[in-house]
From TrEMBL:
This is Unannotated protein. The chain crosses the membrane at residues 33-51, 63-83, 95-112, 119-137, 143-158, 170-190, 202-223, 235-253, 259-279. One of its GO terms (cellular component) is plasma membrane. Residues 2-135 form the EamA domain. It is a multi-pass membrane protein. Pfam families: EamA (PF00892). It is found in: Cell membrane.
């Protein structure tokens, strides 16, 4: 529980860190995030002696290909998120992570042919209604929210299909993006706009620390996911958008219209319905397993 809470609180505090990088273009921030994350993961793999496991995984062309596609969606998610903080749209970014669980469920229906329970359909229907209300209130769809939710939903779907450790998979993903990221950093350095050298040692340190800042929550997430039920982890994940929403309204001073409040209220209702159904289903599954393992439910057959 502590590892899960630490993960989602760290992700929730990301806007504060990226606000410190406001003078750097979002594209360059993402490039540094990729490169320094890869460097940090190489250190982790060396300490944990995980290179052999990584080499075994990398021999599968299908796995590497899927992770390369996942990396593309991850880069989109990172870029749009940094851009959202850059233009002071933290509240809209938080909406993306509020509706992400519902988008993931919808992707499961469309791609994996999963069947939904009635309350899950209700939650998705409410989420669609909320997007329509927010679109009407703003005069346009909440593109930042929709791109963040869909890109991370597709990323999670691919990771579920691949099914390998978070450190190994992220190492392959960042390695796939590293040539592009390095090229962008070299070009920025050559034309004098690169923040790593030209914006002082403080900015240099902040950019290098993007490596551990990115990787540590993913590592704690992997540790939490193997120790507590996914239903519990699913409830904890709302810590991230709640923190982002609060910071957007208070620290970043974003103004919410009545239409936005209504849209967010509908989203929160949808999430309560979805969470209630998830926890109820988890309790049912736990009860069924207990019945199977209960010695009192076993019949003793007397010999003839």
């Amino acid at each position: 529980m502590i590892l899960g809470a630490v993960t989602y609180v760290l992700w929730g505090l990301f806007p504060l860190y990226f606000a410190l990088l406001d003078s750097v273009s979002p594209i360059e921030v993402v490039a540094h995030r990729v490169v320094w994350c890869l460097v940090f993961l190489c250190v982790i793999l060396s300490i944990s002696r995980g290179w052999r496991a990584l080499l075994v995984v990398s021999h599968s062309r299908r796995t590497v290909g899927l992770l390369a596609v996942a990396a593309a969606f991850l880069s989109i998610n990172w870029g749009v998120y940094v851009y959202a903080v850059h233009i002071n749209k933290v509240v809209e970014a938080s909406l993306g992570y509020f509706i992400n669980p519902l988008v993931s469920v919808a992707l499961g229906v469309v791609i994996l042919r999963e069947r939904l329970r009635p309350l899950q359909w209700t939650g998705i229907g409410l989420a669609v209604s909320a997007v329509l209300v927010l679109s009407f209130a703003a005069g346009h769809p909440p593109w930042i929210s929709l791109i963040l939710a869909s890109s991370f939903g597709i990323y999670g779907l691919i990771k579920k299909v691949v099914g390998i450790g978070s450190v190994q998979s992220l190492a392959i993903e960042t390695a796939a993006l590293a040539p592009i990221a390095l090229t962008l950093m070299i070009v920025a350095f050559a034309d004098g706009s690169g923040a790593l050298i030209h914006d002082g040692p403080g900015m240099t340190l902040l950019l290098i620390l993007l490596g551990p800042v990115t990787a540590i929550p993913l590592i704690t997430f992997g540790a939490a996911a193997t120790r507590i039920p996914l239903s519990t982890l699913g409830v904890l994940q709302y810590l991230t958008p709640i923190l982002q929403f609060i910071m957007g309204v208070t620290i970043f001073g974003e103004v919410m219209s009545s239409g936005q409040w209504l849209g967010f209220f509908i989203v929160w209702i949808a999430l309560m319905v979805f969470t209630f159904d998830t926890l109820r289903q988890a309790r049912r599954a736990s009860g069924q397993r207990a019945d199977v393992l209960d010695p009192g439910s076993l019949q003793v057959i007397e010999p003839d």
